[in-house]
Amino acid sequence: MRAFAGLLMTAAVAVHISACAPQDDAVDDKLVEPSALDGATLAQPEQPDVADPAESIRPAAAPACLREFFCAYSGAGETGTQLLSKSGNWTGSKSNVRSVINHGKPLPGLDHVELTWHQGGECWKRCVHYSPGPGVFKFDLPAVEITSVTWRGECAHGEDVNQRCCPGCQ
User: Which part of the chain is CATH 2.60.20?
Assistant: First the structure.
């Protein structure tokens, strides 16, 4: 620490002694010998805040799913990239979907979603309730390819769980 303080002070060798300085424009600079610093306490420069290393490896927050939309994300728990955001019916292909949410609102006949996806060579479907109504309105998936979102009415008993598109089909 003393060596560092000596280097610091040697780098800033010119010290103005204001209490004894003449009142005119002349500058009375003095060199400070490193031995004069023995035992001196120097103020340490303020250290910048260092971010928590865990913060830098966390995925960025995904955009929130807007009210009246159905959304799909690349990460579990609506994290990662928002891969799909639809307020109407949709068919297509979105791969590596790991979570979904129906952020719809109560609207008889059009507030639930029939979601279809492919996983392991099989077609699956599930009726998804609206948020924050009763029933499951969001859930995680194991990196599937979703193929359709269809807005519809109330889920019938047993439709709000994962089901094969055609039971018994290979």
Answer: 59-164
The CATH number fitting domain 59-164, selected from 2.30.30, 2.60.20, 2.40.128, 3.80.30: 2.60.20
Cβ neighbour number for residue 148 with a 10 Å cutoff: 15
pLDDT above 70 (res 138): yes
Answer whether 49's CB lies under 8 Å from 38's CB: no
Determine the average pLDDT of the residues in 48-74.
72
